[in-house]
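Subject: Protein record for review, amino acid sequence with backbone structure tokens
Concerning: The relation between a protein's sequence and the shape of its backbone.
How to read it: Take the token row as a discrete description of the fold.
Enclosed: The protein record, placed directly beneath this head.
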Amino acid sequence: MEALAVTARLCGPQLERYGRCVAASPGSWHQDCHQLSLSVTECASAHPLVRRIRRDCSDSFGAFERCLRERPRSATECGPQVREFLTCAQSVTGDTPAGGTENPRN
């Protein structure tokens, strides 16, 4: 997905630190890694594509974040929410999800 590639390219060091923190704190990553998560968000927010996804997909992303907060030890149960967010983000970027339709704005 284009937005993830942009974030990785622009915010690689922040993503790396956040990923290491999450891996090291499987039961408490949502608390232990919160500041690192904010640093990734702040870095990524500088890009227009990421800002557009945050605006257009705020509802589905909020549902995904709520699911993670409610299930910090079983994030795999948030699959439906992450799929909904990714579908939304793909529609914003113009990427076509598998089995999906083209974005009418492009």
Q: What stands out?
A: Residues 12-95 form one domain. The chain is about 70% helix and 0% strand. Helices lie at 2-24, 29-32, 34-44, 48-56, 58-70, 79-93. The CA atoms of residues 90 and 106 lie 12 Å apart.
